[in-house]
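User: Hey, quick favor. My workstation is busy. Could you predict this chain's structure for me?
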Amino acid sequence: MSRFAEVIVIARDAKQVMEPLTQSDENREWHQCFVPIGEGLFDAWAVEFWRLNWHGLVAYLESLPWPDPHSVQVLIHDEEDDCFGLWMMYDNRLVEVPLPRTERHPFPGNSVTGVLTRTDRRSGGSISSG
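Assistant: No problem, here it is.
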């Protein structure tokens, strides 16, 4: 199934932790690799998924030995989303942080995270699940 999604990971001092995700690994559910996109106080990596094959990614990222877990931010934009959603580490779990004027709607079978819509946009832009 074709399904596009972009994921950006931002974290402090995490080059060593993210290095394995920049290389192919046939043992992972997904085969795309993250690419470094910035260096500085915070490092960043991005990946674009072109199939709905990244179900295990959030749990995988949670399990990594982050040197500074409180700095980890994961931005996810699935194909039908109006904007990127934000996940941050709380109690060793990646939890979606509610963004003002947005709502997440389940979209089973078509999205790993559901669909994030803006509540402040003009009518006519609704998402249907079938």
